């Protein structure tokens, strides 16, 4: 079941949007845990609120950026991430480093596109992305593309067919990782850094987020 | 001028608390920017909301963990961070990595203490911290201590005197870094990843955070 | 369908065994590809012949060590690998490095056990492994165990229940990764380092391995 | 109080110049310590003699390369260092690595300029540097410039205005770091690798450097 | 005494060829050890079977890729490896990483050449290699070339004279490393990961490889 | 031909001694180059003045620490360096990092010994070193010892026999590396960072070091 938090930015571009949207993420995960869902997918390529969600979720939590990178690492010698606006480059580079993917990710490539351009019928977005992927293969020596935005999922087949390399979409990768974890009976360890939040007072507007 | 956000957890322990408190951080920084402050210090050793605050602040923003580690790197061959509860270890280890301090930080050490224990008159907290620092010097070969919690500032002199090594408090370090940056006329670059947030719709409870 | 090559060592311990068994791996994968299987799992924790198998397979190939480590990275702050004989430590440490898992794998732990001890009814193997896992949690601050041998699969539940942390078995993890890749229609990229082997003469005993 | 050692090369370009000038550095620091100065700035971007100076100084010692890089790390997503002659590249790359700045320094850029060209009235040096900085922003995706030579301090405002990004001069950064350290009462730890030199015989021309 | 195994591929290009040729390597090393040779050189730039050979050899074993890279590290600030077909790039990049040469190897460069092209009288191979080396110096800022194929040994003088930088051939480097090790009385440590293979049953075609 | 500079400290312990002794190193190398020697060995385990010597030498220059570590990397899975006084640890750790040996050097171990203790007849030095080596094998899982001081050369056989692992002495290793480089006709590249020093004025006491 996919939900979009009913609070937060219309799209996530940069650290500020990320902080705000993280709140929506943990909110939905808490609701889901109360209802007994089995696992959670954070479906924005910045993986906002991922670690926090792990503390309050009753099952495994997967981010689409981490899922896409890990999945891609099994099928190529090196991939490039192709994403939207330039301001996202640093966030993705930090994720590459955080997930130990420096040896697999040959380059993070960003474009002039805004996230919401991807949803505009008949826009040039599709071709802008394709050309950036083409450069990734020619210049980065990458043999796989990771699409760096949840909104690019419907480009997978098109780009893969045009360029002849595997193309990884984070949402699909995340669903598969979740299915795998749940199927193995695995969930986030409670023994240390992802224990349930300590009980304490939460003040003001945030009172309702008290664990 | 020091402010404590009027919303958020009473102390910050773990990723969930961090996400919630980051909202208070960006809120205060936006208020401060409207009033024309010159710089901002995020005074929790997890550096919550640091990158987001840089996007909306009108001047430099410094986190006390990053300030303490950078400052310490000038005066020692290697330091240990001594912090409170064990669940914070992973967050601090991630910061060490994010700040490029793997070559200087010999170990992150945590204790059984909760953050709020530090404020209890006559508690054992003071000695627990001192003994952990002593082990850091003996076992990690560290020649400097970085105190991993804003609430430990008043232990600097005591520990330094007892152990004969420099002890770095993040709050003091952060103030000095800010003074330095402001004195040099430097502030966060707007040219790329820390540009002001893109204008867009923010929904629901988060509407008032719209950039 | 699980096959065990009909040539090679009875168990795989060290680099020499690995080289010999890699031949059996590529042999079986070539047979499987001729029969049209959809994917391949290399079910020894040294991942012998993994990269070579990718060149000749008609579908994705997964190693159980890489699968276990990647899967574990989604559910813990840090894991220890607990394996058999000490001579395997260096091979596993090389894999940790090759898979970019230095930030997640806190320690490779080996025991006095030989691989075949695991199959002996009523042996002490079970307890030796459990005690090493217990030390991993206490001394390495790991909050997850990766079992470093295909022969330990039936210990997952026992150890997990005794120690209260998730325990990851590579065979199960590998099956899930394969299912995920196949489900997404992904297979090894042919664009570069994993292209089908160049056609050329193979001499002597190896003539039948000619691509 | 700024001093220039009365012995050593007229400018510092390469490892040989560095070794010779390091002697002047420790000589001045020893004189200063005898006179009771509070801190020391090594004002050449190769940081010659920095570690040795720490052993004999009575207060903190800061190098301008380390100060500039650390200071820059607080205000940008990534910086390029723009320096003089090509032979200096490797020394600066080693410093980037030694200071843990691989994640922040996107490129070390050198030019055909000699250090002393910077002091020639009406030379092209100013423009050569500016154009290299422009390339740093366009090609390296850097959003901040670190000037890699003490002689470039007067270009800070010009370049910053022309390119619209923060520009960091090491001398100014070093002064601020020193003020910060001294203000916090911090100095080099004596507990381990920066202890005062062991007493022993010094022979020949070097006799007067005996600790 | 140089031997070429009488089984295996005519040239080694890619992981599959590597696995097959590794068998020939360990076979020859076992024969040599029975005859009492003093040391062994694996003379293919992929270093196939190197670690396995160390387990069964009665003296030190050196690979030409590792020898060339280590030797080059003593005489330059940074080298580029210039090799044959593009499919070898990933194998060489893995070796760079495995040997800790990321700080010295500025780039792995491959060409359209097949290994066997190098042996064709009057081919363009010589010039293709030279031009790639020229680009390495101009674009990578390398000041040394490591030739990435055993078949390039006779190009050393030509390229070195044309480009004015040292050029390192792995076979010559390997011989020198072996002479050095043997001269010092050093051989592979038996204490841990390179102990003689464990005794056990080997099945089928591989029975004759039983340790 | 071995020379000991007629100026500088009686032994080298720490950064200050290193700076002073580097001057003696470059002085002797310049004299040697005028006389036409073929290569140079810097025979102190801190490798003082190594890079500078490369700029002024007429042949290859090798440091005993770099030679020992590289040589050891061919014969073991991991080594420990066992050295004299604790203040040398940080210098050796920096060298390990600078030479890309983090993956091979499992630990730098220092002892209470002063360098000159090694020369005292009948001292306990021999046993102190042996016991530290024993701990290296037991606790670090090292299967090789690198002796971290030129003055330990005569302990090689004793320790190797007692502990059953290869023991590497830097002086012997350095001689072999030099012989190898000279035999291959290789010397330091002049193309970039190790070019001969730029001509310029040298002042004061240092005038005679003018290139």
From TrEMBL, chains A, B, C, D, E, F:
Q: Which GO terms describe its molecular function?
A: allantoin racemase activity
Matching Gene3D superfamilies: 3.40.50.12500
What single Pfam family name could you report for this chain, choosing any that match? Answer: Asp_Glu_race
- Which stretch is the leader sequence? none
Which keywords does this chain's UniProt record carry?
Isomerase
Per UniProt, the enzyme's principal EC class comes to isomerase
InterPro entries for the chain? Asp/Glu/hydantoin_racemase, Hydantoin_racemase-like, Iso_Racemase_Enz_sf
**What's the Enzyme Commission number for this chain?**
5.1.99.3
Family that this chain belongs to: Belongs to the HyuE racemase family.
User: This protein is called what?
Assistant: Allantoin racemase
Q: What species is this protein from?
A: Pararhizobium capsulatum DSM 1112
């Amino acid at each position: 079941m996919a939900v979009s938090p009913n609070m937060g930015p219309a799209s996530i571009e940069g650290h500020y949007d990320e902080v705000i949207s993280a709140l929506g993420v943990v909110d939905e995960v808490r609701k889901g845990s109360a209802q007994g869902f089995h696992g959670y997918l954070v479906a924005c390529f910045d993986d906002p609120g991922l670690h926090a969600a792990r503390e309050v979720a009753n099952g495994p939590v997967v981010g689409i950026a981490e899922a896409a990178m890990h999945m891609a690492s099994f099928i190529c010698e090196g991939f490039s991430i192709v994403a939207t606006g330039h301001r996202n480059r640093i966030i993705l580079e930090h994720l590459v480093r955080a997930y130990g993917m420096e040896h697999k990710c040959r380059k993070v490539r960003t474009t002039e596109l805004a996230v919401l351009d991807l949803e505009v019928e008949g826009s040039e977005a599709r071709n802008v992305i394709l050309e950036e992927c083409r450069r990734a293969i020619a210049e980065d020596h990458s043999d796989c593309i990771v699409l760096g935005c949840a909104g690019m999922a419907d480009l997978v087949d098109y780009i893969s067919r045009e360029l002849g390399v595997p193309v990884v979409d984070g949402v699909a990768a995340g669903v598969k990782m979740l299915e795998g974890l749940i199927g193995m009976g695995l969930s986030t360890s409670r023994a240390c850094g992802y224990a349930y939040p300590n009980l304490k007072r939460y003040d003001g507007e945030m009172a309702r987020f008290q664990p």
